Amino acid sequence: MVKVAKTVAWELWLPVLLIAAWWFASAGSTSFYWPALSDIASRLGELWFFDHLVDDAVPSIIRLLSGFAIGFVVAVALGLLLGSVAALEDATRPLVEFMRALPSVALLPIMMLLLGTGNDMKVVTIAFVSMWPILLNTVEGVRAVDPVLHQVAASYRLTRWHRLRHLVIPAAMPQVFAGARVALSMSVVAMVLTEMVGSPGGLGYFVLNSQRTFDIVAMWTGLIVLGFIGYATNKAFGLLESRVLAWHRGYTNQKEDQR
């Protein structure tokens, strides 16, 4: 319990300090573009508890999680295939590198032509953007499995499915999660961009519409909510990663102790 309290305190001291500095520095501000933090905090409660929380934040979170989940599943499946068949990975590497280099902003026009401006376009774009880091890391994770382990598996005559399930996937998981962490941040960016150009609704649309209507305080509240969502999703992903890869952390600590 004491350790958890120390960890929380260590993570919060700098944000609390910065918020306090912002609060006192902006107190009494008459600037139209840099309102006082006290005004933003007051408007934050009015707007986001609970009308816009239900109408804008929740749909954005659902789109983010849906697109990221689709991208994760597709990327891991393709990564396992490409990592297991070296000739196929070599043949598709230029195409993969080309596709992953495309910025999400450049994809929006073609996505809107193909899928319209509704929810499908937003989810597919998030999935497309998020899959490339996971795909490349999965391929690298599969190909990095120790050849000795493959020889041991062959000596025990494990089937292809059992090798995949008990050897390849566990060995590749640290790389997969490293790619997924990068992909999650890219997914948040893709979510905001698609909501800014797509049909009305969502946090991205709320921020852009507030800026266009010169409701600057509301715009700031939207940015703060976006930050909270990004932080919360990253923390949740970290907890999931620590649970799934608990064996890997113990294995790594054991190797460090042996040195």
Automatic annotation (TrEMBL):
It comes from the Bacteria. Pfam families: BPD_transp_1. The chain crosses the membrane at residues 12-34, 61-86, 98-117, 213-233. Keywords: Cell membrane, Membrane, Transmembrane, Transmembrane helix, Transport. The keyword Transmembrane helix applies. It is a multi-pass membrane protein. It is found in: Cell membrane. Residues 57-241 form the ABC transmembrane type-1 domain. InterPro entries: MetI-like (IPR000515), MetI-like_sf (IPR035906). Belongs to the binding-protein-dependent transport system permease family. PANTHER family: ABC TRANSPORTER PERMEASE PROTEIN HI_0355-RELATED (PTHR30151:SF20), ALKANE SULFONATE ABC TRANSPORTER-RELATED, MEMBRANE SUBUNIT (PTHR30151). This is ABC transporter permease. It comes from Aeromicrobium wangtongii.
